[in-house]
Design brief:
There is one protein chain. By secondary structure, the protein is an alpha+beta fold. Helix content is 29%, strand content 33%. The protein has eight helices and 21 strands. An eight-stranded mixed beta sheet has the order 6-7-5-15-16-17-14-18, with helices on both faces. Helix 2 crosses helix 8. The site of flavin-adenine dinucleotide has 35 residues, from helix 1, strand 2, strand 3 and strand 18.
């Protein structure tokens, strides 16, 4: 079976690797090159903790996939430092961890060391002991090696149904395939809509800022949604580097606000947070990582199929990548359901 995968972000690469393992003839096309858009950067948070027991169970399956990938890569692709969740989601997410039978502990100010660079820690927080920090660059290098000769740098500008298969149109000429997986991140909707697959179109801006820290580490990952402050996610992005993403309210990061204004609003909010809340983190921005996100999609992922075409979308996909690769390879080669939502 010949499969064309559009997109060589972590999702398209994971699916390409799983399809190649299953014996498919794969071509993976990306307009820029591997890991160039939403998958770029050094690190991501891995966590079991989610707002539904189903997602906790899926993340546990994904963690087993990360162990397999780490073994194949010859080095750990996740640093098992744990992930702390504080503020609004604690009660509900703890209930979901319990329901899914996932390991966790409650922690708080009574703990001598929370493993966070914080002035005054949260009174009560959920510690996801399986959580950690994903080596995103190492993951990209590993998957790019696995995809090997299947990778091709080329824009895909149109998909077309042809007989029982599909034609993928690129400026270098057409590619014919039995099936097409659209894993093109922000480019998914313009390709999927003309072949009859609806995926969300609304985008928002997102930026993550990196600061110097004097903490020697290891520090835990942290999702902080404490009252009276902006919601953030944070983790160690390398030795002496602490990275913080702010989850601003929609007006601040709305597409119509424009990239420059959204970056300015995010920087102001995150730097203010670092000054007020963190300890041992210098509030001078060393680095910023911009990307588009799907507006207000949250966790979870969605697979859509029609004829030879399969599309995937979601907003926090890195942590699920090994599982997603397997699920998408199965959906493309033997799937029968047209719509599956993992939420
Ligand atoms: C700053 C930041 C922090 C994040 N933190 C986390 C986190 O802690 N945990 C987590 O799980 N997730 C996190 N995420 C989200 C996660 O990184 C993304 O959901 C994931 O990387 C998306 O991968 P993807 O392969 O779907 O998309 P992408 O990486 O965007 O890949 C899509 C690819 O398709 C290509 N493409 C698009 N259109 C076309 C076309 N027409 N023709 C050819 N190629 C095309 C693009 O060039 C791109 O390479 C974060 C994202 C960012 C940016």
């Amino acid at each position: 079976m010949k499969v064309a995968v559009v997109g060589a972000g972590v999702v398209g690469l994971a699916a390409s690797a799983a399809l190649l393992d299953g014996g498919a003839d794969v071509v993976c096309l990306d307009r820029t090159g591997p890991m160039a858009e939403r998958s770029t950067g050094s690190s991501r948070i891995f966590r079991l903790a989610h707002g539904s027991a189903e997602l906790v169970a899926l993340a546990r399956d994904a963690r087993a996939g990360w162990a397999r990938w780490s073994e194949a890569a010859g080095r750990p692709l996740i640093r098992d430092v744990g992930c702390v969740v504080s503020g609004a989601p604690v009660l509900a997410w703890t209930a979901c961890m319990r329901k899914a039978g996932a390991p966790y502990r409650m922690v708080g100010t009574a703990d001598a060391d929370l493993g966070l660079p914080v002035r005054r820690g949260p009174d009560v927080a959920l510690l996801d002991t399986t959580g950690g920090v994903i080596d995103a660059e190492g993951t990209g290098a590993h998957l790019t090696r696995r995809a090997g000769a299947a990778l091709r740098t080329s824009l895909v500008y149109l998909l077309e149904e042809r007989g029982s298969g599909a034609r993928v149109h690129t400026p270098d000429g057409p590619v014919d395939a039995d099936a097409v997986l659209i894993a093109a991140g922000a480019g998914t909707s313009p390709l999927a809509a003309p072949v009859g697959l609806y995926t969300p179109t609304a985008l928002a801006h997102h930026v993550r800022f990196t600061f110097a820290t004097t903490h020697p580490g290891p520090l835990r990952g942290w999702i902080d949604q404490s009252p009276g402050r902006i919601a953030t996610y944070q983790h160690m992005a390398g030795p002496g580097r602490w990275t913080v993403g702010g989850l601003l309210d929609h007006a601040g990061i709305a597409w119509e606000a424009g990239r420059a204004a959204a970056v300015d609003a995010s920087r102001e909010a995150v730097v203010g947070y670092v000054r007020e809340r963190l300890d041992g983190v210098d509030p001078t921005v060393l680095d910023e990582l911009y990307c588009t996100t799907m507006a207000e999609l949250g966790d979870g992922f969605h697979i859509r199929r029609r004829g030879p075409f399969t599309a995937v979308y979601g907003d926090n996909l890195f942590k699920f990548a090994p599982l997603l690769g397997d699920l998408l390879a199965r959906a493309v080669t033997e799937g029968t359901e047209d719509e599956v939502d993992y939420v």
